[in-house]
Amino acid sequence: MALNTVGDAVGLDYWLQWQVLVCALIIIIPLGISLKITIRSSGNGHQQLKSCDLWLPCWKNLHPKWLLLYRVIAFCSMAFLLYQTVASFGLFVFYFYTQWTFTLVLLYFAIGIIVSSRGCSMYSKKPSTQVADGDTLSKKDHHEKANNFTTNVKAIETKSLSGQEAGALEILMHSIYHACAGAVVLTDLVFWFILVPLMSGKDFKLTVLIGLMHSVNVVFLLLDSAFNNHPFPWSRFTYFVLWTGAYIIFQWTIHACGVTWWPYPFLELNTPWAPAWYFGMALFHVPCYGLYALLVKAKDFVFSRIFPHAFLRLC
């Protein structure tokens, strides 16, 4: 973990610089718009979201228990990596956006385990039945009636499951998913294509642990996306903006409280280039979220054509 140390004390003069005001506007304006859109859509924005969207796979013959098993594996793996990181560097690592996002993805899988467990319980419940007396039916008629009953039960169950609207926990999970979708792409692209080249000549040492922390987050989330049934509207982009905005506000707050360093060099305000960095990073959120949305759309487009009978959005 490399730090950008600032030698100047943080005083009133620091916050009265012109670039600080410009950077504040670059942060406040998108945050205000995103917050307004989120509040406005909170009343009806999740009405189309069904409970089964969060735990029923998009693969027709795949039992929900396999998605549950994957989420358990992803959660345990990420929890172990986060534990190793904290054990190696201390709680100080949570000053970084990487650990914020990593923890958010971990929270997504934790909620996903609860939602999937509840979904598997619903999915496994079968109403009891009594088929006609076997003494009065031939084996062939008995078999046909049993098959017809099973088909009808499956249709009723699917209709019943897909008619249930998402609850508070499902909505929270769905919101976190969209915040993570853009954040993991932003985290990994910035790390591998900006920070690593900038810090390659300094005291920064790229270890296996640090490399994994900036890779498995997007890998695990993409694998979940390959199996889950989440709708992916662009309106959920606001959650990604709010998440990053919360991190920036956190950094400015602790800096105002006396911390004299920034975890990332492009957050430094004591330079005339600060507005350009902040504006560039704000714009970079659009392709980051767009790239993930494109991958999800590509999944639906490609798999539905290659596997038309196996790949199906059930809800």
Topology:
Blueprint: E1 4-5, H1 12-15, H2 18-42, H3 64-89, H4 97-124, H5 139-162, H6 168-199, H7 208-213, H8 216-227, H9 237-256, E2 261-262, H10 274-306
Antiparallel strand pairs: 1-2
Any key phrases for this structure?
single chain, 1% strand, mainly alpha, globular, 2 strands, 315 residues
Polypeptide structure, described:
Keywords: Membrane, Transmembrane, Transmembrane helix. One of its GO terms (cellular component) is membrane. The structure is a single chain. With about 325 residues, the protein is an all-alpha fold. It has one domain. Helix content is about 65%, strand content about 0%. The chain contains 10 helices and 2 strands. It has helices at about 10-15, 20-40, 65-90, 95-125, 140-160, 170-200, 210-215, 215-225, 235-255, 275-305; strands spanning about 5, 260. It has a two-stranded antiparallel sheet. Helix 2 (about 20-40) runs parallel beside helix 10, helix 3 (about 65-90) runs antiparallel to helix 8 (about 215-225) and helix 4 packs antiparallel against helix 6. It is globular. Mean pLDDT is about 85; it is low at about 1-10, about 130-145 and about 145-160.
Order of helices and strands: EHHHHHHHHHEH
- Largest beta-sheet details: 2 strands, antiparallel
Number of strands: 2
Shape: globular
Spatial separation of the terminal alpha carbons: 44 Å
Counting H and I runs of at least 4 residues, what is the number of helices?
10
Residue ranges: pLDDT <50 for 5 or more in a row? 1-8, 128-143, 145-158
**Cα-based radius of gyration, to the nearest Å:** 24 Å
Helical content, roughly?
55-70%
* Approximate strand percentage: under 5%
Number of structural domains: 1
Mean pLDDT over the residues = 84
Major β-sheet strand ordering: 1-2
